[in-house]
Structures are given as C-alpha cells and as structure tokens.
Amino acid sequence: MKVLVGFHLSDLQAEAFTFKQGERAGTTGIGLKSRLLRFQWIKVDGQPFPAPVARDATA
Length: 59
Prior knowledge:
By secondary structure, the protein is an all-beta fold. It has one domain. It has a three-stranded antiparallel sheet, with no helix packed on it.
C-alpha cells in the first residue's frame, strides 16, 4: 500500500543532536519539529481521498 499526503506545517524548528550508536556515533544530526495544521490532499494507491474538514478551534 502506498500512501501520499500533502500537508501544511507551522512553527518549524531544527534541533541538533549527537548520534550515540552505529556508524554515525559521535557525529551531529539535525531533527525537525513542527506543528501539523492540516492535510491538503490524501492518496492511497493513487486513489484520491477527501481530506478531513478542519473544525473551528475554541481555546
């Protein structure tokens, strides 16, 4: 099964870390973190599916 999605992100941040094990032990890597806002489109095995409708957030 092949799943593809298009999405919108917010507050993208890069965080550095150091690998502890394996071939890359001791080298620096970068991890990305962000907030998922919504899915724009979804396809499963090439067939499009409707993206969920966003609800109004009440905070």
